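Q: What residues go here?
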């Protein structure tokens, strides 16, 4: 896994899904691809367990890049559908990453 050079920002999106799919997987894939095209996007990590709890962390160069992604019309529509159909609940946290390190075999 490649780590951006700090400092950068992490947007941590934690969610619990509904039982309704209605194109969720396809839309999530589209949003990942679209985010990757945005100015200041640095990457993402995403997991979801069998009970529907998911965590997606997207990495951004600065707060302006995050604001630009939030204003994207397709992303806005996905957020609307998420509230209406796909999520029981979600939480968003934005954090500035000052240090980053890891291990790789």
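A:
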């Amino acid at each position: 896994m490649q780590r951006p050079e700090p400092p950068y920002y992490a947007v941590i999106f934690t969610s619990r899904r509904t039982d309704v799919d209605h194109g969720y997987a396809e839309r999530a894939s589209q949003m990942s691809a679209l985010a990757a095209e945005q100015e200041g996007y640095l990457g993402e990590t995403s997991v979801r367990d069998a009970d529907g709890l998911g965590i997606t962390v997207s990495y951004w160069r600065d707060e302006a890049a995050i604001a630009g992604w939030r204003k994207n019309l397709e992303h806005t529509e996905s957020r609307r559908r998420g509230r209406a159909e796909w999520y029981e609940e979600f939480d968003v946290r934005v954090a500035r990453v000052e240090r980053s390190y890891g291990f790789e075999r």
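A: Context that may help when evaluating the design: The helical segments are 24-36, 63-71, 73-86. DSSP finds three helices and four strands in the chain.
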